[in-house]
Specification:
47% of the residues lie in helices and 15% in strands. The chain is globular and about 90 Å long. It has three domains: 103 residues, no CATH class; 352 residues, Rossmann fold; 233 residues, Glycogen Phosphorylase B (Rossmann fold), CATH 3.40.50.2000. With 839 residues, the protein is an alpha/beta fold. Bound molecules: N-[oxo(pyridin-2-ylamino)acetyl]-beta-D-glucopyranosylamine.
C-alpha cells in the first residue's frame, strides 16, 4: 500500500546552485527528484520501499562526489594502500550509518518531517546485507568504517553473495533456516561495473615450456574459465571527506568458454556451464568454522582472491612498468586463512604472467601480505585435501609444493636434528589424506601475523603457531579488536550519544578516549538519573521489539541479562541455562535468596549442520516455555529468545543490556567484540578471563566486572589431570538437581530423551568444562543480582564501563595496524579544495 498522506512536495529551493546540498531544502528537493527520475514513481503511489530507495539515492549522490574526489586524491598522490581481503563483510543497514557519517541526520529528519514522513519508518525498510557469519565479518565492517574515518587509503575486497547469512525462523522452538533475499528489491548502495571484469580459471593441467629467452617456464592449461565482475560500494569516513571503496566480486560465465561450447553444438551443456559458474557467488557458507572439503568453498576463496589481486596488479601497472615495488604500493591483510590462497596466486601472477624469477617473486609476495588469526579451535583451522586442491588449482598446488620444498630445506639447515619439528611446520599435513595447511601457508607467506586480543596473541605464539614463533619471533603481533562507536553508540543509542555529546562535545565519536569525560560524573545524582532514564528507554524499546517478534511480555524494570552471539558449545549458552534452571528450581523449592527480577535474553544463529547448537536453541525455548507460563515464577524470571540475531537487531539489543554474558571457556574465544559493544553501552560484564574480556576488565576496573571461572592455565591443568565432570555432578547438590531436571522431561513435555545428547555430553566429556565452572558462575551471578538491587552503585559501575572503554574503538585498532603492521599514512581528502571532476 502507499505510505503517503496527501501533501505533494513543492519544488524550488534556496540552494539550487548545488545538486548535492545538505540543507533540509536541498535534501527534500533531491529526494523528490530521485523518486521520479531514479525510482520512477510518483508521490501519490509511493510505497515505503520507494521512500527508502529515493532516500538512499539522495544520500548516495552525496557520497559519490566524496568518493570520486577521494579516488582522485589517492591516485594523484600515488598513495600506499591497504587492501583488506575478507570472505565476509557483515555490514548491516547502510542508510542510517551514511546519514551519520555525512553529518546530516538532523537535516534529513527535518526534511522528511516537512514531507510528512517519519525518517525511522524509512530506515526500517532497509534489508541488511548479511554477508558474514559473525564476529569476523562484523570486524571487517568496523575496520572499513575506521579506515575511512582515519583517512587511510584502503580497499575492501570480498564476495558479493547473492544470499547472505540465512534468516532464522523459530518453529516449535527449533531453528529453521530461510533464504536471505537481501538483493531482491534492488541494492541502491552498489555500483555495478560491467566493464571491470577479470578472468578466473579452474582445473585442467600444467605443462612446461621454454620461453623466448630459453628459460624454463610453466603454463597452466585450465579447463574452465569464468569472470569476476566488480560491484562497488562507497564507504564514508566520519567527520572527514574520505570515502573508500568496498569492491565485491560477482561470478559470471566466461564468454569464450560459452562460445566454445555453443560452437560444438552443445547448447544445454553451455547453459549448464554458465549456471555452474554463477553458482560460485550464490551463497555464503553459514558456518563459523570451515566446512570440510567443500569444493565450492575453495572455489569461492580462490575466485575472490584472484579477482582482487588482478585488480591490484592493474592499478599498480598504471604507475609502474612491472611488478617491482608491488609490496610498496600495497599492504594486503588476510582476514583469517580464507583468502590465504592469495600467497600462491600472487606468486603465480609474478612468475607465470609477469616472467619474474622465483626469488624476486617470493620477496615481493612475503612483503605484501599480513595475516590475522581469529581462532585456536583445532576444528576451525582450515586445511584442504591435496587431491581436491590439485584438481581445482593444479598450478597453485605446484607453487605451494615449491614454497614448501624451499622452506623445509631452510628448516632442515636450521634444525638438523629435529625432523619432527620440520614435519610439524610443513605446509602439507601427512596422513591417510594429505592436506594443505592454510594457516602455515599464510604464516610463511606473510611479513606479519597477529592475534585479536592480548591473551589470544600469546596463545597463538605458544600453541598453534609455536614453532613459527620460535623461528620468527619478530613476525608476531597483537592487535586487540575494536568496534566502531559510530554504529554501536551514535546510531544505535541516540540517548547515550546525547549524554556524551553534552559533556564531551561532538569530538568523542572520532576520539573515543574522550568518553572519559563521563568518569567524574559517575556519582553525581542528577547525572545518574539521566543515565538511568537512558537505559530505561532502551529497555522499553527492546521490550517492544521482543513483544512484536515473539509475543513475550517482559518488564523493563527487571535486570536485563543478555547473551547474543553465534550458538556454540564453547560459548556456553547452556551454562547460562543451567543457572536459569537453578533459579527456577530455587523459587519452586522456596529456597530462593536472590529476589532480583530478571529477564534473560538470548539471540544467535546455529550453523545449520551443528546439531548440538540447534538443540541448545530448542532448550532455551523449552526452558522459556515452562518459566514464562508459571505464575509462581514468571513475576521474577522471564526467558526470551530474539529470533534472527543480525546487525539490525543487535543495534536494539546492546543499549538495553544491564548484564552482558561473556562466559566462554578460558582460551577458546579469540577476542569477542560483542563484549565491547555491551560495555560501551553501559552494561556490566559477567565473564571469564578469555579473549578481550581480560582487557575490558583491566580497563573498566576489576571492581566493575563480575569475574568467574577457571583461567587458561587452570583449564589446561584440569584437563591434563583427567577431568571427570561426573564428580562435580555427584558432589554438588544443586548442579545435580538442575541436570536431573533437564533429564526429567519437565522441559520436554515428558520426553526424557530430547535433551539427552546435551546432558550426556556434559556428564561424560564436558569438553568445555561447564560443570567445573558452574559453582563459580552461579556465585558470580548472585553477586550481580545483589549489586543490581543498589541502583546508585550499579549506575556508577555502568557509567564507568562506558567511560573507560574508549580503547575498544576500532579507530584505535586501525591506528595500531597502520603503525605496527601496514606502515601506511593518512591521506586526507578535501571536497572544498577540489575542482573539476564533480559536476
Ligand atoms: C572469533 N568465523 C571472535 C572475531 O576477531 C573474534 C570461521 C570460518 C568460516 C567462517 N567464519 C568464521 C570466525 O572464525 C569468527 O567469527 N571468529 C571470531 O572472530 C573477530 O572476536 O572471538 O570467534
Amino acid at each position: 500500500g502507499t505510505a503517503r498522506k496527501e501533501r505533494a512536495p513543492m519544488h524550488g529551493s534556496s540552494d539550487e546552485r548545488t545538486r548535492t546540498g545538505m540543507s533540509p531544502e536541498s535534501l527534500k528537493r533531491a529526494f523528490v527528484d530521485s523518486m521520479f527520475y531514479v525510482q520512477a514513481r510518483y508521490w501519490e503511489v509511493a510505497t515505503p520501499h520507494d521512500l527508502y530507495m529515493a532516500a538512499a539515492y539522495t544520500v548516495r549522490d552525496r557520497m559519490l562526489e566524496r568518493w570520486i574526489r577521494t579516488a582522485e586524491t589517492y591516485r594523484k598522490a600515488d598513495a600506499r594502500t591497504v587492501c583488506y581481503l575478507s570472505a565476509e563483510y557483515l555490514l548491516g543497514p547502510q542508510l542510517g550509518n551514511n546519514l551519520i557519517n555525512l553529518g546530516i541526520v538532523d537535516s534529513a529528519r527535518q526534511g522528511a518531517r516537512d514531507l510528512g514522513i517519519d525518517l525511522q519508518e524509512i530506515l526500517d525498510q532497509e534489508p541488511e546485507p548479511g554477508l558474514g557469519n559473525g564476529g569476523l565479518g562484523r570486524l571487517a565492517a568496523c575496520y572499513l568504517d575506521s579506515l575511512a574515518t582515519l583517512s587511510i587509503p584502503a580497499i575492501g575486497y570480498g564476495i558479493r553473495y547473492e544470499h547472505g547469512i540465512f534468516d532464522q525462523k523459530i518453529v516449535d522452538g527449533w531453528q529453521v533456516e530461510d533464504c536471505d533475499l537481501w538483493l531482491t528489491n534492488g541494492n541502491p548502495w552498489e555500483i555495478p561495473r560491467p566493464l571491470l571484469r577479470y578472468p578466473v580459471r579452474f582445473g585442467g593441467h600444467t605443462e612446461p615450456y621454454t620461453d623466448e629467452h630459453g628459460r624454463f617456464r610453466v603454463r597452466w592449461v585450465p579447463e574452465l574459465d569464468l569472470y569476476g565482475m566488480a560491484y562497488d560500494t562507497p564507504v564514508l569516513g566520519f567527520g572527514n571527506d574520505n570515502t573508500n571503496l568496498l569492491r565485491l566480486w560477482h561470478a559470471t560465465a566466461g564468454r569464450s568458454f560459452d562460445l566454445q561450447a555453443f560452437h560444438k553444438g552443445d547448447y544445454y551443456g553451455a547453459v549448464n556451464a554458465k549456471v555452474g559458474a554463477e553458482n560460485i557467488t550464490k551463497v555464503l557458507y553459514p558456518n563459523d568454522e570451515p566446512e570440510v572439503g567443500k569444493e565450492l568453498r575453495l572455489k569461492q576463496q580462490y575466485f575472490f582472491v584472484s579477482c582482487s589481486l588482478q585488480d591490484m596488479v592493474r592499478v599498480h601497472l598504471q604507475h609502474a612498468p612491472n611488478l617491482e615495488g608491488f609490496h610498496e604500493r600495497f599492504a594486503a591483510q588476510l582476514n583469517d586463512t580464507h583468502p590465504s590462497i592469495a600467497v600462491a596466486e600472487l606468486m603465480r601472477l609474478c612468475l607465470d604472467e609477469h616472467g619474474m624469477d622465483w626469488e624476486r617473486a617470493w620477496e615481493i609476495t612475503r612483503r605484501t601480505f599480513a595475516y590475522t588469526n581469529h581462532t585456536l579451535l583445532p576444528e576451525a583451522l582450515e586445511t584442504w585435501p591435496v587431491e581436491l586442491f590439485g584438481r581445482l588449482l593444479p598450478r597453485h598446488l605446484e607453487i605451494i609444493y615449491e614454497i614448501n620444498a624451499r622452506f623445509l630445506d631452510e628448516l632442515r639447515m636450521r634444525y638438523p636434528f629435529d625432523p619432527e619439528r620440520v614435519a610439524r611446520m610443513s605446509l602439507i599435513e601427512e596422513g591417510p589424506v594429505r592436506r594443505v595447511r592454510m594457516a602455515h601457508l599464510a604464516t610463511v607467506g606473510s611479513f606479519a601475523v597477529n592475534g585479536v586480543a592480548a591473551i589470544h596473541s600469546e596463545l597463538v605464539k605458544s600453541t598453534v603457531l609455536r614453532d613459527f614463533h620460535e623461528l620468527w619471533p619478530e613476525k608476531f603481533h597483537n592487535i586487540t579488536n575494536g568496534v566502531t562507536p559510530r554504529r554501536f553508540i551514535q546510531l544505535s543509542n541516540p540517548d547515550l550519544c546525547g549524554i556524551i555529546t553534552d559533556l564531551a562535545g561532538p569530538g568523542w565519536a572520532r576520539d573515543a578516549e574522550n568518553l572519559r569525560t563521563l568518569e567524574p560524573h559517575a556519582d553525581d545524582a542528577a547525572f545518574q538519573q539521566r543515565w538511568q532514564a537512558m537505559k530505561r528507554a532502551a529497555k522499553e524499546r527492546l521490550a517492544a521489539r521482543i513483544r512484536e517478534a515473539t509475543g513475550a511480555v517482559v518488564d523493563p524494570q527487571s535486570l536485563f541479562d543478555i547473551q547474543v552471539k553465534r550458538i556454540h558449545e564453547y560459548k556456553r549458552q547452556h551454562l547460562n541455562l543451567l543457572h536459569i534452571v537453578a533459579l527456577y528450581h530455587r523459587i519452586k523449592q522456596g529456597t530462593d535468596s536472590d529476589p532480583t527480577p530478571r529477564t534473560f535474553v538470548f539471540g544467535g544463529k546455529a550453523a545449520p549442520g551443528y546439531f548440538m547448537a540447534k538443540l541448545i536453541i530448542k532448550l532455551i525455548h523449552s526452558v522459556a516455555e515452562v518459566i514464562n507460563r508459571d505464575p509462581e515464577v514468571n513475576q521474577r524470571l522471564r526467558v526470551v529468545f530474539v529470533p534472527n540475531f543480525n546487525v539490525k537487531n543487535a543495534e536494539c539489543i546492546y543499549p538495553a543490556a544491564d548484564l552482558s554474558e561473556q562466559i566462554s571457556t578460558a582460551g577458546k574465544e579469540a577476542s569477542g567484540t560483542g563484549n565491547m559493544k555491551f560495555s560501551m553501552n553501559g552494561a556490566l560484564t559477567i565473564g571469564t578471563l578469555d579473549g578481550a574480556n581480560v582487557e575490558i576488565r583491566d580497563a573498566v576496573g576489576h571492581e566493575n566486572f563480575f569475574l568467574f571461572g577457571l583461567t587458561v592455565a587452570e583449564v589446561e591443568r584440569t584437563l591434563a589431570e583427567g577431568y571427570r565432570p561426573w564428580e562435580y555432578y555427584r558432589s554438588h547438590d544443586e548442579l545435580r538437581e538442575v541436570i536431573d531436571l533437564l533429564r526429567s522431561g519437565l522441559f520436554s513435555h515428558g520426553d526424557p530423551d530430547l535433551f539427552r545428547p546435551l546432558t550426556d555430553s556434559l556428564l561424560q566429556h564436558d569438553p568445555y568444562l561447564l560443570l567445573a565452572d558452574y559453582p563459580a558462575y552461579v556465585e558470580a551471578q548472585a553477586r550481580a543480582g545483589d549489586a543490581f538491587r543498589d541502583p546508585a552503585g550499579w549506575t556508577r559501575m555502568s557509567i564507568l564501563n562506558a567511560a573507560r572503554t574508549g580503547f575498544f574503538s576500532s579507530d584505535r585498532a586501525i591506528r595500531e595496524y597502520c603503525r605496527n603492521i601496514w606502515q601506511v599514512e593518512p591521506m586526507p581528502v578535501s571536497l572544498a579544495a577540489g575542482n573539476g571532476s564533480v559536476p
